[in-house]
Structure formats: C-alpha cells, structure tokens
Design goal:
Layout (H helix, E strand, L loop, with lengths): L19 E8 L2 E3 L5 E10 L5 E9 L6 E2 L2 E2 L1 E6 L2 E10 L6 E12 L4 E5 H6 L5 E5 L12
Parallel strand pairs: 2-11
Antiparallel strand pairs: 1-3, 3-8, 4-5, 4-6, 4-9, 7-8, 9-10, 9-11
Amino acid sequence: MTLIFIKASAQATNDAELPNMLAMNFAPTVVNVSNSAQYVTFTAVLTDNLSGVQHASFYLTSPSGQTTLTPSVYNLISSSVLSGTFQGVLEMPQYSKAGDWLIHNVYMYDRLNNAGHLDEAQLRAMSIPITLTVITQYAVFLSIVLR
C-alpha cells in the first residue's frame, strides 16, 4: 500500500468588515396608543461582505429618556444576507408615553456577531427618519352637579 500525501494550501479570509445599513424607514410614523397597542414596521437595507447580515437593532428612547424599546429586523424580505432588505415589527404598548420617541443608536450584526454601529448624528446625516410620534389621549370625565 502506498500513501500519497498532498499538501493543500488555503488562504484564510477574515470577516473583519463590519455590517452596514444603507437605508431605513418605518411606518406608520405616528401611532395612537390610547385604546390599544399599535404596531410599527421597520424596514432596513443591510449589507455585509462575507458572513452575511444576521439582524439590526434600533434603540428607540421615550421623550422622558426613561424608557428604551429595541425593535429588531431579522426577516430577510428581498435579495440576500450579503445585501438585502430586512424587516421587523415593534409593538408600541398601550398608554406609552406621548411625544416624540427618537432612534438614538442602531447596531447591525453579521453572522459572526461582528457589530456595526450608527449613532443619532450619523443617522441624521444619512437623512434616515429617527422620530416616531406617539399620541395618547385620555378621556376626561367631568362631574356636573345639578342643583
């Protein structure tokens, strides 16, 4: 029996490039949570050069700054994980704080958990919408005393 050894040469490729977001929007941009929770659909165009996009998370802060919600887009709805459109839904709870909720940060993750980041200033520079307006109307009952 003769054994033949073959020396294989492979060049490793490192996934060092961070994922990126090219565009993002959400709808509706105004929700009324007086009577029930409302749903907001986030859509983002995400890219990653090698392993592919896993998801993106948006950090949405209440007008008081005391509450943060983090909707994520996981569902690939078109193209590929290397460059595609992803979508996710945020449930804005009933009676949420009224006013303008702002997206302050976005983190994009690839399949190796490398994370790209965009802050509020970068989002504004890209003309990406960052304000979700929440309306909460409370019924006011007046007691009228008849004499």
